[in-house]
Amino acid sequence: MPTPARQRAQKKYNAKPEQKKRRAARNKARREMIKSGRARKGDGKDVDHKDGNPRNNSKSNLRMRSKSANRSIKRDKNARKRRK
Protein backbone atom coordinates (compact mmCIF):
# COMPACT_ATOMS: atom_id res chain seq x y z
CA MET A 1 0.00 0.00 0.00
CA PRO A 2 1.46 3.37 -1.01
CA THR A 3 2.12 5.94 1.64
CA PRO A 4 -0.22 8.93 1.93
CA ALA A 5 2.50 11.21 0.53
CA ARG A 6 2.92 8.92 -2.49
CA GLN A 7 -0.85 8.86 -3.04
CA ARG A 8 -1.00 12.67 -3.00
CA ALA A 9 1.90 12.95 -5.43
CA GLN A 10 0.33 10.41 -7.80
CA LYS A 11 -3.04 12.18 -7.68
CA LYS A 12 -1.36 15.49 -8.54
CA TYR A 13 0.61 13.88 -11.39
CA ASN A 14 -2.48 12.16 -12.85
CA ALA A 15 -4.38 15.48 -12.84
CA LYS A 16 -1.95 17.11 -15.29
CA PRO A 17 -3.51 17.80 -18.71
CA GLU A 18 -0.81 15.87 -20.59
CA GLN A 19 -1.36 12.76 -18.44
CA LYS A 20 -5.12 13.01 -18.96
CA LYS A 21 -4.57 13.07 -22.74
CA ARG A 22 -2.23 10.07 -22.60
CA ARG A 23 -4.67 8.10 -20.44
CA ALA A 24 -7.57 8.97 -22.75
CA ALA A 25 -5.54 7.81 -25.76
CA ARG A 26 -4.70 4.49 -24.05
CA ASN A 27 -8.37 3.98 -23.18
CA LYS A 28 -9.37 4.78 -26.77
CA ALA A 29 -6.86 2.24 -28.10
CA ARG A 30 -8.36 -0.42 -25.83
CA ARG A 31 -11.90 0.41 -26.99
CA GLU A 32 -10.81 0.22 -30.63
CA MET A 33 -9.18 -3.18 -30.08
CA ILE A 34 -12.36 -4.49 -28.45
CA LYS A 35 -14.46 -3.08 -31.28
CA SER A 36 -12.28 -4.75 -33.91
CA GLY A 37 -12.47 -8.09 -32.07
CA ARG A 38 -8.77 -8.25 -31.20
CA ALA A 39 -9.44 -7.89 -27.46
CA ARG A 40 -12.17 -8.78 -25.00
CA LYS A 41 -13.21 -7.18 -21.77
CA GLY A 42 -11.53 -8.96 -18.87
CA ASP A 43 -9.07 -10.90 -21.05
CA GLY A 44 -6.13 -9.96 -18.80
CA LYS A 45 -4.07 -8.52 -21.64
CA ASP A 46 -2.70 -5.07 -22.45
CA VAL A 47 -2.75 -3.09 -25.66
CA ASP A 48 0.88 -2.54 -26.59
CA HIS A 49 1.89 0.59 -28.50
CA LYS A 50 4.88 -0.67 -30.49
CA ASP A 51 6.57 2.74 -30.64
CA GLY A 52 5.84 3.54 -26.98
CA ASN A 53 3.68 6.56 -27.83
CA PRO A 54 0.20 6.11 -26.31
CA ARG A 55 -1.21 8.86 -28.53
CA ASN A 56 -0.28 6.99 -31.72
CA ASN A 57 -3.32 4.73 -32.14
CA SER A 58 -2.78 3.69 -35.75
CA LYS A 59 -3.68 0.05 -36.33
CA SER A 60 -0.13 -0.81 -37.38
CA ASN A 61 1.18 0.48 -34.03
CA LEU A 62 -1.13 -1.58 -31.80
CA ARG A 63 -0.94 -5.20 -30.69
CA MET A 64 -2.19 -7.32 -27.81
CA ARG A 65 0.32 -8.63 -25.27
CA SER A 66 0.14 -10.25 -21.89
CA LYS A 67 0.39 -7.82 -18.99
CA SER A 68 3.73 -9.24 -17.86
CA ALA A 69 5.26 -9.00 -21.36
CA ASN A 70 4.01 -5.46 -21.96
CA ARG A 71 4.99 -4.08 -18.58
CA SER A 72 8.48 -5.62 -18.51
CA ILE A 73 9.73 -3.75 -21.60
CA LYS A 74 12.95 -1.85 -20.91
CA ARG A 75 12.39 1.89 -20.75
CA ASP A 76 14.64 4.93 -20.85
CA LYS A 77 14.67 7.69 -18.23
CA ASN A 78 11.61 9.33 -19.86
CA ALA A 79 9.61 6.07 -19.64
CA ARG A 80 9.81 5.58 -23.40
CA LYS A 81 10.59 2.18 -24.86
CA ARG A 82 14.28 1.71 -25.51
CA ARG A 83 15.41 1.24 -29.08
CA LYS A 84 17.15 -2.06 -29.76
Structural description of this entry:
- With 84 residues, the protein is of the alpha+beta class.
- The chain has one domain.
- The protein has three helices and two strands; from the N terminus they run ααββα.
- The chain has a two-stranded antiparallel sheet with strand order 1-2.
- The longest helix has 20 residues.
- The mean pLDDT is 92.
Descriptive terms for the model:
single chain; alpha+beta; 2 strands; globular
At a glance:
By secondary structure, the protein is an alpha+beta fold. It has helices at residues 4-14, 17-36, 67-71, and strands spanning 45-49, 62-66.
Number of helices: 3
Which series of helices and strands comes N to C? Answer: HHEEH
What number of structural domains do the residues give?
1
Radius of gyration equals 14 Å
Provide the residue-averaged pLDDT: 92
Topology (SSEs and partners):
Layout: H1 4-14, H2 17-36, E1 45-49, E2 62-66, H3 67-71
Antiparallel strand pairs: 1-2
